[in-house]
Design a protein that fits this description.
The chain is 70% helix and 7% strand. The strands form 3 sheets. The chain has a 3-stranded antiparallel beta sheet, with helices on one face. It is mainly α and 514 residues long. The chain is flat and about 190 Å long. The protein is built from 14 helices and 8 strands.
């Protein structure tokens, strides 16, 4: 037991002695490491110091170079400004010399003028003296004083002037009667030229484009149930044939065609096509279209400056967008008639607002909710009366096709403007071909002339603009060309109204400054 205790004591003493020896060795090693770290830090600091000094020198050199450049540029600017100042000084000196020369010339001219003025005064005095002598001589010969002779001469001239004036007045009245019809035609033509309304040709079918023919099968559905549901909901015949990437929608009602087209678009984009979904989409599309019709009517009356129109009449105006007559869009036709009526009423000194209102509503009987067996003019008049329109507007609507008698001046204006808008070349389908041929003939006739480079028929064929080559056609020849074209068009072609020929000759001089 004692041996064990002694062993443990020796073991503990040995461990403690080993710990102190290890601690002493590590302390020496750590001290050497600290000295080495300090040496490395001093070297790094010296290197950083050297690098910073180099960078500072480089930055100083750059700033010095930039400063020298700035000074050099300022010196150049100062030299340029000095040159400009010297140039201005030379110009001022030159102008001052010119002024002195002109001043001397002016003094000489003033002296000459004074001399001529004195000579003229002497001649005037001589003429007055001679005139006085002649008057005295004439009084002695005629036995009449100057005042009496003047009175007699005035009486004679007055009687002669009254006779000539009566003759001139009578001649003017006769010429006015003969030219009244021509002046009326000119007013109508000017009103037409001041209106430019686009016309669109509508058909009874619409084309719905699709990305691929695979969608056709989904639209038809199993055993055709989808397409039958769509036709029943919209009232439109849907034709799915071999036409690539297209489906034909056939219906005489443009509103139904538009509903079917928009519903198809929504169904294809959504991807869910079945009878229940078809009915839901068609119902929502109908609401959207009816709201769009009201918005179109509101925008139309705002654009035309018409106020106080009944909401039902505004809705009918919007429905005109989806109605056509002989291929002419009814809303565009009515807008054009309204503008024409306003212009003619202004020329004739009538109520412009009433005329514009009657022009917009004249075909309102073509878009009723039901289909009564009445002419559209009479039906439109009854609708206008129902919704509280002015009696002159109602009469103009009912009389624009002579179904009733006209009782105000607005009615014939509406009738004339309706005819002008419908008969204008290009407005309706029947005259489009003849209208295009006339434009082509006008341009070909101008291009057949020597020196003509380009020709354009404008304003529905009422103006022909001809561009000529300046090297081949002089100013005098351009005038002759314009006159010859007007005579040839007048003799060889048939056209409404008149055709204005404008020959344009352009000369350009181009230089490049480097």
């Amino acid at each position: 037991m004692n041996e064990i205790v002694i062993f443990l004591i020796l073991f503990v003493v040995g461990a403690v002695f080993g710990f102190f020896i290890t601690l002493f060795i590590n302390r020496s090693r750590y001290k050497n490491q600290s000295i080495q770290i300090l040496k490395d830090a001093r070297k790094a600091a010296e290197q950083i110091k050297t690098d910073k000094l180099l960078q500072a020198k480089e930055k100083f050199i750059e700033l010095k170079s930039a400063h020298e450049k700035v000074i050099l540029n300022r010196n150049k600017d100062l030299e340029l400004k000095e040159n400009k100042v010297r140039q201005k000084e030379q110009n001022l000196n030159s102008r001052f010399e010119d002024y002195n020369r002109k001043n001397q010339t002016l003094k000489q001219d003033v002296d000459d003028f004074e001399k001529r003025k004195s000579a003229l005064e002497r001649k005037e005095n001589e003429i007055d003296e001679n005139h006085r002598k002649q008057v005295d001589l004439l009084e002695n010969i005629s036995g009449m004083t100057k005042a009496a002779a003047k009175t007699e001469l005035v009486k004679s001239l007055k009687a002669e002037a009254e006779t000539d004036a009566m003759s001139y007045i009578q001649k003017t009245i006769e010429e006015a009667k003969l030219s009244a019809n021509d002046e009326a035609k000119k007013i109508v033509i000017q009103a037409i030229q001041r209106v430019a309304a686009e016309e669109s040709i509508d058909n009874s079918v619409s084309i719905f484009n699709i990305e691929s023919d695979d969608i056709k099968g989904r639209i038809i559905g199993r055993e055709g149930r989808n397409i039958r549901s769509l036709e029943a909901a919209t009232g439109v015949e849907i034709i799915v044939d071999d036409t690539p990437e297209a489906i034909i929608l056939s219906c005489f009602d443009p509103v139904r065609r538009e509903i079917a087209k928009l519903a198809l678009k929504k169904l294809v984009l959504d991807g869910r096509i079945h009878p229940a979904r078809v009915e839901e989409v068609v119902a929502k599309t109908k609401k959207d279209i009816f709201q769009e019709i009201i918005n179109i009517g509101k925008r139309t009356v705002i654009d035309l400056g018409i106020h106080g129109l009944h909401p039902e009449l505004i809705r009918m105006v919007g429905r005109m967008k989806y109605r056509s007559s002989y291929g002419q869009n009814l809303l565009q036709h009515s807008r054009e008639v309204a503008n024409l009526c306003a212009i003619l009423a202004s020329e004739l000194g009538l109520n412009v607002k009433l005329a514009k209102r009657a022009g917009l509503l004249h075909d309102i009987g073509k878009v009723p909710d039901d289909s009564p067996e009445l002419p559209h003019a009479i039906l439109g008049m009854k609708l206008a009366e129902k919704y509280g329109e002015n009696k002159d507007v109602c009469n103009a609507i009912g009389a624009h096709h002579d179904e009733i008698e006209m009782n105000n001046l607005i009615s014939p204006i509406v009738q004339v403007c309706d005819s002008v808008s419908g008969a204008r070349p290009g407005a309706r389908r029947e005259v489009v071909e003849a209208y295009l041929n006339r434009l082509k003939e006008l341009e070909e006739l101008a291009l057949s002339k020597r020196g003509v480079m380009k020709a354009y028929a404008l304003q529905a064929g009422r103006e022909l603009r001809v561009i000529v080559e300046s090297e081949k056609v002089s100013d005098e020849k351009a005038k002759i060309l314009s006159y010859d074209l007007s005579k040839q068009i007048q003799e060889e072609m048939t056209y409404p109204g008149q055709v204005k020929i404008t020959v344009i000759r352009e000369t350009r001089s181009i230089h490049i400054a480097k």
